[in-house]
Amino acid sequence: MLRSIKRTAAKDWSRLAIYADRSIIVLNKPPYLICQGSEKGEDQPPRERNVDKFNDLLSDLKDQFHLEKVPHTVHRLDKATTGALVLAKNLTAARQLSQQFRNRTIGKTYLALVRGGAQSFSAQSGEIRDPLESINGRVSISQSCNAKFAATDWELIASSPRVPLSLLRVKLHTGLKHQLRVHLAHSLHTPILGDPVYTRSAVSDKVARVIKVPENRIFLHASRLCLSRFRKAGPNKHFRLEVAAALPGDFVTLCKDTGIPLKEWDVSGGMFVDGEPAGDEITDLDGRWLRPRHHTTHRLR
């Protein structure tokens, strides 16, 4: 049972922050949180009122980081998606981040637990370039003049030896609504576990006998966010900062129960500079990792 936010201390929201420096904050977003201020009335279901409180989160972060104004939202994750979400501490940082998103220089990598075993894949990796069109909120692959270019790369990490489920690492090159959900379900024919919109078939009996998939829970996680950052001085001012958001506990449990191995830094999260582990601090950015974790020695690939 979900706790009422009215009874939850406001400072609980700040626990979502996993990294911060002088201009940005990166959160590990939980499921069900809408990445915008709530505009719904009090007549909405209690579960919605209790969970979708982004304004409370922004207000708490303002207090925790001693900001003049609430942080700026520069991108969003779907309500059902978990993982790395970056906020800007000030307007200048928001403009810089927005420019990176427009130029598609920000790397966005996701982990998706999908329905389909090893036999569902003819290769270990691939590209999807099917254009998408949104009509009345429903997204589909389309060749019409209104469809937009959409680019997704995928890699098969592992398949369960027990049930027809697989773990994919997916790179998002464009950021259209429901892009990953549609591309994985309708282009790759391996829908994301728990997605009720882009697949109508029930989970197979083989899966249902081994695990119980939580209701209204889609297993898509924004695993890594890679940004261009700049040091104040030195010969190599420009570098790439990558923040890895730890997988939610239920995601880890499902992988464990079905025999799907996970990399250490997917489970614990981490911070990397130009692909190398960065420890807990980036001194020339006044940056620091904010959550306890196990240190990892894996190089990003």
Automatic annotation (TrEMBL):
| Top-level enzyme category | isomerase
- Please classify the protein's predominant subcellular localization into one broad category: mitochondrion
Give the EC number(s) under which this enzyme is classified: 5.4.99.43
Instruction: Quote the cellular component terms of the Gene Ontology held in the record.
Output: mitochondrion
* Molecular-function annotations in GO: 21S rRNA pseudouridine(2819) synthase activity; RNA binding
Q: Outline the extent of the Pseudouridine synthase RsuA/RluA-like domain.
A: 24-186
Catalytic activity entry = uridine(2819) in 21S rRNA = pseudouridine(2819) in 21S rRNA
Q: Which UniProt keywords apply?
A: Isomerase, Mitochondrion
Q: Does the keyword Iron-sulfur apply?
A: no
Against InterPro entries, the record matches this protein to: PsdUridine_synth_cat_dom_sf (IPR020103), PsdUridine_synth_RluA-like_CS (IPR006224), PsdUridine_synth_RsuA/RluA (IPR006145), RluA_PseudoU_synthase (IPR050188)
Task: Output this protein's name.
Answer: 21S rRNA pseudouridine(2819) synthase
- Intracellular or extracellular location(s): Mitochondrion
Q: Name the Gene Ontology biological process terms.
A: enzyme-directed rRNA pseudouridine synthesis
Query: So what family is this one in?
Result: Belongs to the pseudouridine synthase RluA family.
Mind telling me which Gene3D superfamilies this protein's record contains?
A: Pseudouridine synthase (3.30.2350.10)
Keyword Isomerase part of the UniProt annotation:
yes
Could you tell me what this protein does?
Pseudouridylate synthase responsible for the pseudouridine-2819 formation in mitochondrial 21S rRNA. May modulate the efficiency or the fidelity of the mitochondrial translation machinery.
